[in-house]
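Z., the sequence and structure:
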Amino acid sequence: MDIKTISTIESISPMQSKKNSLMRLSVAFLFVLVVYILVSFSHSDIPNNEFLIIAAVFGAYMAMNIGANDVANNVGPAVGSNALTMMSAIIIAVIFEASGALIAGGDVVSTIKKGIIDPSMIADPNVFVWAMSAALLSAALWLNIATYFKAPVSTTHSIVGGVMGGGIAATGFSIVAWDTMGKIAASWIISPVLGGLIASGFLYLIKTQIVYKKDMVLSAKKVVPILVAIMTIAFSTYLMLKGLKKIVKIDFTTALSIGVVIGIATYFIVKPLVAKSSKKLKNTRKSVNTLFTIPLIFGAALLSFAHGANDVANAIGPLAAINDAVVVGGEFGGKVGIPLWVMAVGAVGIAIGLALYGPKLIKTVGSEITQLDQMRAFSIALAAAITVIIASQLGLPVSSTHIAIGGVFGVGFLREYLDNSEKNFIKKTKNRFKEDQKELEKLQKELKKLDKKENKSKKEYQKIIDLMVKVEDLQEVVKDEKKEFKEAKKIKYVKRDTVKKIVAAWVITVPVAATLSACLFFMIKGIML
């Protein structure tokens, strides 16, 4: 390829990138414009509807940013492990996120987001609307910034920071429930640590019970159906407690009992299927990995559905609050219904944001923290469901985003630990190889010396035979050790820079969103007064 051709390609690539960026911006702007027009016409008879229309635009922008940032946690590991292509993951996430939001999304939402502020301290409904508008826009802006820097952050924490900042700007610091904020701060540690420990625990189980066994295929036939059954129990319980709470309310004991029944049934269905698939497998890790592909795809789909059902309503809560304050009037601090159009803005916005900008964060979660395969991604998906169940029963505030990323960290650091152990193994093997090589050379010299000697005695002939056997055996040992040493894998580390960037983004999410919200509130107040 000549220099002229290379120059031509380099000049085309930036142009193509600019065209793609312009196309994405155009589609996003078109969605916001459609929301603006529809809400303007559908609420034209409502007095002072301007802020509802503006809030709807902010809500559309927020929903797209949720799709661009938060959804990556559900499908990123599946894409990183090559269980799903990027396009397949986006299609599955779009369908199940939107379905979760529209079918099983909560029909009520606390406008104060789990007691972050006391809305009774805001006497003027207009001030409340300004505060919620600022909260919505600040959370969306922060998600946009985080997505630009490829840092997956918590949507819930973003909106919490926005509501807190808007509330403080409206009435002062006394409006904030600081004990609740303390629990949220604790979740920055609780969520990733729990997710990481559980994910690494399952990966270690898979390694010790399948990967490290001499006959991996036989071991997989026994273990994989059990793991799939555990996954079924976890996701069934998770969906009943979190994803389907709008349709039917079930207590933990009942949900777990039903989950166990479904899990046992799944075990007996999956066992013969795994046995059949195992007949075609080679006794290699890569081949056995394929057994985890289908469960992983189901896991990504169910996580997306539960996320749509459980998190979308909370994320667009301020829009529902503004709708209630403008349309209904009166008290505005309690639980309010979420109109279908608000849920639709959330669901469609998430789908568009994911399709347009989701791949950037999906790549970060799936491949830019640590290398994933199906076994590792399966462990992460399973850990996400189990961690949420455990945390909810213990009353611990956790973030689904932090749990999923913590799971990625967990499997990455476990790999690093095991690879370091492998490094020691390589070192020992190398030393043993050198020692055995010296011993072999010593025996060969002795054998050669005896072989040259004339008029050998019977004893010397026997010694030659013994030496030949020893040399032959030791040659095989040295050959195996040399092969072991050469085939040993290199150490793979978790990317420290990516970890630092993500953790830093987590820590500053609430304060940055709060600061943005306060600034926006004062800006809105200045314009309106």
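Confidence is low (pLDDT under 50) at residues 1-12. Residues 43-173+215-395+510-528 form one domain.

Let me know what you think.
H.
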